[in-house]
Every structure is written in C-alpha cells, then in structure tokens.
C-alpha cells in the first residue's frame, strides 16, 4: 500500500510540474510584451494624422510589440487619409485595426492599410465614395485615383480588391451584399469576415487581445493632448471658413468702433487660433507665421505711408500665408472667398447704420465741412445793407457804384438801367452781390 501511495504521489508531482511548465509557456506568449492602443475616432483630418504620427513614433521608441488602432470614424478628408495610410505602411511593428462601430469612407481605407482587421459584431466598414466639401461628387479624376488607392490597399493586405473597389465605385453590382448598381458597398462584421476583409469578429478589446495572444501584455493607451484636440477642431474643413469669416467680420467691425475693442480682439483671436491649429497639425511652419506677420506690418504701415504699394504687398502676404498653411489650395480659396463675402456684407450693413463718423474710419475719412454753422464763410455778407437808401455814382448797366451812408459800394440792378445820380434802395444782399432798385418819387 505504501508503494502505491508513493507512486500516486510521485505521479501527482510530475503532473503538477508539467502543468506548471505548460502554463508558464502559455503565459510567456503575452507576458512581458507591450501593446499600444491608439484611438482613430471622429472625422479624419490633418489633426488626426498628426496625433497618429506622434503615437506611432512613441510606440516605436518604447519598442512596443503591437499597436491596436481602435477605429470609429465616419470618414473625412481624402488627403489626410492618404497621409495616415502612408504612415501605416511604414510601421515596422505588427498592428491591427479594431473597428468598434464604423470605419466608413476614409476610415475603411485607413483600416485596409493595417496588418490585420478585427471588428465587433455590430461594426460596419465601407461606403467610401469621394465627395467634395460642399457635398457634391468629386471629379472623375479624383474618383478614379481613390478607387485605385482602395484596390491597392486591399491587394497589399492580400484581400480581394473587387470589394474595396465596390466601396468606392457605385457602378459595381454586388446585390448579394445589398450593394446593387448605384450603391456603395458597406460590409457588416460577418460579411467582412466571410470575404476575408476581417480576420475575426470579437466582442471587445479583451477578447481581441486574447485572440492575438496578448492577454497578459502591458497595455498603454495614447490619447490626443489638449493642443492636439484644438488642432483637430481647427483643421476641420467646416471650422476653417468659420474662423476666417470671424476674423474678417471682427476687423471690419473694428473700423467702425472707437479704439481697439471686442470686435478687433475677436478677429485677432480667430487668426491666432487658425495658425496655431495648423502649426500643431504640421501644416504651417515658422515661415508661414513670419510671412503673415510681415503682411500685417505692411498693412499697418500703409495707414501712415501714402502710395498704396505697402497695402497691396501686405494683403498679398496675408492671403499667401493662408495658402501656405494648407495642402488643399482649392478649399482654402473657397474659405477665403466666404470670408471676403462676409466682410463685404458686414461693411455695407455697418456703413448703412453707422456711417463713417465713428471708430477708426473717422481718422481716414474727411468729415469736416466749412459750413456757416461753424463760422466758415466764403465771403463777407452785407445783410445790414438791406433797406438802406443811397445814390448811384455811376450809371448801372446793370452794375456800377453807389454811395450809402458815405460808403462806396459795388451794386447791381435787377436787370434794368439806372442813370447816375439816381436815388436807389438796397433790396437784397447775397455775399458781395448787393442788389438795388430805383426809388421813383411821385409827382405832386
């Protein structure tokens, strides 16, 4: 019995040791590794690209073993998506796009450039048609380039490019995926897994980490800093024309208000926010800000130096700096056009209700008039002569000279002739023009 007991104990110890070794081996797959979790959320724009660049660089510097991009975006700017996709292609660290809710339009393109794609059961991906900022379809050239980019991203990941093209080209007919002709393809999580566009469907991040064998890894989350959040807001295609319009409205209103007040401050803050956001997003450099400052200085100098050359140079420099702060000249031109329209309308309304009598405009507009109310007269009026009687010293044909209370005065008749030595009476005085009428005495 003792031998049997010893054998059972020895066997138990061996099994325990084997289990311990196997558990240690399994845990070693994820233990000691580092996973960076980076959110790809809200609209795709240059501010997001800047944040992702920083997060990826940080992960590489910390020798991370994996990067998970948690995607939930309705899409956004194509140029920003292209920049992000290029960044993804250059990542040396294994990475995964984890679609939480939706990866639409530019979001689907970004996800296709990741090493692998996982989705939650309710997530969708696709609908990648290209539209302009005003909601209309983009040009055929732009659409063609976008379709090629979508196909290339799918092919690089070993996926069937037909489905990527259907996401961007409504002319493809895929009725089995509710994407008949005229509709963009949008895949559910199950459909994406079925056609190989998703490596799997998982409930949450924990399940994804387990699927990747990284459940025991150290998780480091990155989030946009306050400055990056401001940059994302300011570089949003909707916000740019609003900021420029506020700036133009503020400066126009400042011309009609005394001193430098709320309106001017509003305009200045709007411009500072514009350049600050674009600087943080990497769209504007120090040379852009210097160029803008030189433009403002030239405009100010124009107020004191006549000629107009400095003003033209200043306005050109300011507009040029706005174009330097963007990589989409067409959209910036539209934003500047909107701002100019706002400025023109504001100028008309302010002039109508306030005129040029207030604010800075009164310093450059001549408002003073040499009116008699202020003591200005073009010549001396002789109103005191009206009713005075005198004698003509010369014939009046119709002008001549007369004497009134011992004073020789140039006089004129109402149009008729009056001989010399005749009695006359002043009936009207208009400046230096004294009009007289002959006094005819009745005969007795």
Automatic annotation (TrEMBL):
Keywords: Membrane, Signal, Transmembrane, Transmembrane helix. Residues 34-221 form the NfeD1b N-terminal domain. It is a multi-pass membrane protein. The chain crosses the membrane at residues 233-253, 260-277, 283-301, 331-351. Residues 384-437 form the NfeD-like C-terminal domain. Residues 1-28 form the signal peptide. Its main location: membrane. Pfam families: NfeD (PF01957), NfeD1b_N (PF25145), NfeD_membrane (PF24961). It is found in: Membrane. The keyword ATP-binding does not apply. This is Nodulation protein NfeD. It comes from Pontibacillus salicampi.
């Amino acid at each position: 019995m003792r031998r049997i007991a010893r054998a059972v104990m020895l066997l138990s110890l061996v099994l325990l040791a084997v289990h311990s070794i196997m558990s240690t081996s399994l845990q070693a797959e994820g233990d000691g590794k580092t996973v960076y979790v980076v959110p790809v959320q809200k609209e795709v724009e240059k501010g997001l690209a800047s944040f992702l660049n920083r997060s990826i660089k940080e992960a590489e510097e910390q020798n991370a073993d994996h990067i998970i991009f948690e995607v939930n975006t309705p899409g956004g700017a194509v140029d920003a998506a292209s920049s992000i996709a290029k960044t993804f292609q250059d990542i040396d660290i294994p990475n995964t796009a984890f679609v939480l809710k939706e990866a639409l339009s530019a979001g689907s393109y970004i996800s296709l450039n990741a090493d692998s794609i996982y989705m939650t059961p309710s997530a969708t991906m696709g609908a990648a048609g290209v539209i302009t900022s005003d909601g209309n379809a983009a040009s055929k050239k732009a659409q063609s380039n976008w379709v090629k980019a979508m196909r290339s991203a799918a092919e690089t990941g070993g996926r069937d490019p037909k489905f990527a093209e259907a996401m961007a080209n409504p002319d493809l007919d895929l009725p089995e995926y509710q994407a008949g002709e005229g509709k963009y393809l949008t895949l559910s999580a199950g459909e994406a897994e079925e056609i190989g566009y998703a490596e799997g469907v998982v409930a949450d991040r924990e399940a994804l980490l387990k699927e990747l064998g990284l459940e025991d890894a150290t998780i480091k989350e990155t989030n946009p800093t306050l400055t990056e959040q401001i940059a994302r807001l300011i570089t949003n295609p909707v916000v740019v024309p609003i900021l420029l319009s506020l700036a133009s409205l503020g400066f126009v209103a400042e011309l009609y208000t005394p001193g430098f007040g709320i309106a001017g401050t509003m305009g200045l803050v709007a411009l500072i926010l514009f350049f600050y956001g674009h600087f943080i997003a990497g769209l504007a450099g120090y040379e852009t800000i210097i160029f803008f400052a030189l433009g403002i200085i030239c405009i100010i100098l124009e107020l004191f130096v006549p000629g107009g050359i400095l003003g033209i140079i200043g306005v050109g420099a300011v507009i040029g700096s706005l174009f330097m702060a963007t990589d989409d000249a067409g959209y910036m031109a539209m934003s500047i056009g909107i701002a100019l329209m706002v400025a023109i309308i504001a100028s008309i309304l302010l002039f109508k209700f306030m005129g040029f009598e207030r604010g800075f405009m009164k310093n450059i507009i001549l408002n003073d008039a040499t009116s008699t109310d202020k003591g200005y007269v073009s010549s001396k009026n002789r109103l005191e002569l009206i009713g005075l009687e005198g004698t003509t010293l010369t014939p009046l044909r119709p002008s001549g000279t007369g004497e009134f209370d011992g004073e020789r005065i140039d006089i004129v008749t109402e149009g008729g002739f009056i001989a010399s030595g005749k009695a006359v009476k002043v009936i009207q005085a208009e400046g230096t023009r004294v009009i007289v009428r002959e006094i005819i005495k009745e005969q007795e």
